[in-house]
């Protein structure tokens, strides 16, 4: 018979794997770069956090707990920052939004920088586009 520690550890690891699977499905199924980036960042961070927590519970040692806390804190600090930097670089390189994305608040800014889908903006408004 398995101990409670192993059962709880397995539950955490399975939850982490489910989040990672959701993240990978999001990469394939979601329509544009920005939405995919959001799915990857959130689901992968949670997935890795649950897996590392499950490993920590299973081994139940101070050294592993310290390393696990360090890994989780590092992921929580760096993952959102990295996603923001990558998304901003994509925006500056004019990666277009999905046509059904609601961007009413940012329309003037996006028109100015030429990052709106061409279906919503006249081609004359986009830099580098000729009529």
Can you describe what's shown?
It is a single chain. The protein is elongated. With 131 residues, it is mostly helical. It has two domains: 91 residues; 31 residues, no CATH class.
User: Looking at the chains present, what oligomeric state does this protein adopt?
Assistant: single chain
User: What structural class do the secondary elements suggest?
Assistant: mainly alpha
Q: Given the structure, what is the number of helices? A: 4
Residue share in helices?
Answer: 55-70%
Please indicate the percent range of residues in DSSP E strands (runs of 2 or more). Answer: under 5%
Number of domains: 2
> Biggest sheet: strands, sense, closure?
none
Radius of gyration equals 21 Å
Unreliable sequence segments: 119-131
Q: Could you tell me the mean pLDDT?
A: 82
Q: What's the end-to-end separation, in Å?
A: 74 Å
Count of strand segments: 0
Query: Based on CA inertia axes, which overall geometry fits?
Result: elongated
Task: Write a compact overview of the structure shown.
69% of the residues lie in helices and 0% in strands. With 131 residues, the chain is mostly helical.
Summarize this structure as a short list of keywords or feature phrases.
elongated; 4 helices; 2 domains; 131 residues; mainly alpha
SSE inventory with pairings:
Elements: H1 4-29, H2 33-59, H3 62-92, H4 107-113
Helix pairs in contact: 1-2, 2-3
